[in-house]
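[Discussion] Sanity-checking designs against the backbone

I'm trying to build intuition for which residues belong where. Below is a structure token string of 121 positions. I'd appreciate it if someone posts a full sequence so I can compare it with mine line by line.
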């Protein structure tokens, strides 16, 4: 008889150290490989955000190179390919209803940025 372990959930996945906070420039993105997943990290005036780096419209791993800004007070990143804006808080595309990019938990502890992958859907 064989048994398989359940996939980790957001509640059980571990936090992965990525980089010191001072390596993230404000209003710029950076890509990181977290447990085999390309993640786009963003630092704004007082917040950190983590999304999948894969642009769901263009199909390329480029969101970390997008333009960070805001729309109506919502922090956003615009894809460098087709310029769709994604809400950094939720991953929702503000230009195409129903399109979104996965978001992940991110925190800073003792000056070190850590990411915990989320299983969404």
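Best answer:
Here's mine. Compare freely.
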């Amino acid at each position: 008889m064989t048994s398989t372990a359940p996939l980790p959930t957001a509640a059980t996945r571990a936090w992965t150290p990525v980089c010191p906070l001072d390596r993230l420039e404000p209003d710029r993105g950076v890509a990181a490989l977290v447990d085999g997943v390309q993640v786009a990290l963003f630092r704004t005036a007082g917040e950190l955000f983590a999304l999948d780096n894969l642009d769901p419209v263009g199909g390329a791993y480029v969101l970390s190179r997008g333009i960070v800004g805001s729309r109506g007070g919502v922090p956003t990143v615009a894809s460098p390919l087709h310029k769709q804006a994604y809400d950094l808080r939720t991953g929702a595309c503000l230009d195409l209803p129903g399109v979104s990019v996965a978001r992940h938990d991110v925190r800073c502890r003792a000056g070190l940025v850590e990411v915990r992958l989320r299983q969404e859907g």
